[in-house]
Amino acid sequence: MTKRELSSRHWFGKSSAGLVLGLLLAVAMSGLFRKLFGVEEAFFSIKGQLAMWLIAPIWAAVLSFCFLFSSSLRAWIGLAAANAVLWGALWAVGETAR
Amino acid sequence: MKLRTDLVRMYREIHGWVGIVSGLALFIAFYAGAITMFAEPLQRWASPPSRLTPAISLERTPELVEKVLSAHPEAAKAYRINLVIDAAHPARMTWSDGRGREVRSGNAIIHYAAIANDGSLEVVTRGPSPVAQFIDVLHQQVGLPFDHEISMPIMGAIALLYTIAIVSGLVVLLPSLVSDLFALRIGKNLKRMWLDVHNVLGLFSLPFHLVMALTSIVFAFHDEFYDLQGLAFGRVERAARTVAAPGAAERLLPPAEIVAALERQASGFKLRSLDYSRRPDGRTMLRIAGSDERYGMRGPTFGIAEVDPASGKIISRDYLPGHQDGWAATLTSFFALHFGNFGGTPVRWAYFLLGLAGAFLFYTGNLLWIESRRRRERNSTAEQTRSTRILGALTVGVPMGCVAGISVTVAAAKLLGEATTWRIHSEIYYAIFLICVLWALLRGAARSGVDLAIVGALAMLTIPLASLVAGPAWFETADLLAVDGVAMASAAFLLMAARAARRRMTSGPRDSIWAAAASS
Fold it and tell me: Do B229 and A42 form a contact (C-beta atoms < 8 A)?
């Protein structure tokens, strides 16, 4: 926890991080779901649709809570790090397109 | 619950801003959405008695199909056999020139076919009223008049703001939850009362609002989500279903036998229509729409079974209510929770009330924003600032314009009869909506609040009036009188609101935007 006071002044930097990196993070989570439950085809299969649905709550949650970062920079760095971990894992298990 | 004060303050400011940006659009979405809960009876209420020859029996339906397909071979691409014949579905067989979305948004011609008494084929293109679908699209597009491709991303952005508003509102409420929850302080301090109303409405309908926000994000962005996934994880073509020996001419089971086969395989699934379409490989696909109130359903009012048209055997149970596996039932629950289609009429009424309460929640949110701006501005100047005045006017004009516009365009369905088109309904709605908004901007929030409440009440009364003019022939069943009943009750409510607004205008605080002086 930081000692710096939270304020809504940094809303643009934080929310843009949440919007962009939050979406990427949500797609990565849907990729984990796909890997975990063996989704092959996204559009017509039920599990594929569930993987797509998963994006909305994760994206919305990141966007709602990204204001808790103490600054815009920390928001971008924190979410970028989370993305790097997840996408790295996805790449390692061979789920990403190649 | 203890939370850091700077955190609560930050979220209070965020709540105010996302609320004020999305509130008016959300009002329209919720008000129109509440009405959409009864889209089916409303469509029967609004549809003229059909002039088609009464539909032939299900047993003789193959004759009709044969006649249509020889006279209109293009219908073979996709046609529907209605199993329930009513004012909204007057013909046994229908087909359309357009595809799904064009049909649903009134941009396609639908053909209604029957067999006349002399045995000849009868086809008309004027049919049931499109007003219920118009309101549904208004709901989906948060009241925006643009094309689907433009409106939906805006709706999605509103839904994201709405989610932030829900989370931030909850954070703000948490510290004082226990002391504030059951307190409704009606009294001198009007702002306190509105805040209590806002809190209690928001908290008790929280699950409903979370469901609506999250499902709407998907409804807005599913194509983009799939595209992103395709980019990230690659696409796999759909595995071809096992295909029976091609080439041989298909022998389709007659509809009556399909119905009997479904009764054996899925009793309790009340069938509504058989949708035949031609697959890319030339074979016929049959999807059967029907409902089962005991379960949630994938469509707004129906679930779907995919059936082998030659044998009547169910091929896919993915969207067949009560016959799904856990995965499909989970997926379906997202849709069902948005559509409120589980549990029949009582749940529909509950959703109707929750939707209206939601619309009211956004209205109270705007009121609170304006009141707190007023407090801040009072310290600097006695006058309301221009932006607060405009916001106040919009807070009156947009909701009342939406209410009045929907009422009149619904009533118009009965006066126009078979001449109604989607376009006319759209023009009537937006004309009245814009007039109300302009009126509010010109007259100010206080005076127009009184005027427009009366206009809204009169607009509501056009609905029973239209029923009187159109006559009893339009009432296929007596329960459709509920439409007129709800309209009259709403008119009474709006007249009461007008009286309250007048009182507020003359005897409320003078520096309020609701006082007559400030708005002149």
Answer: yes
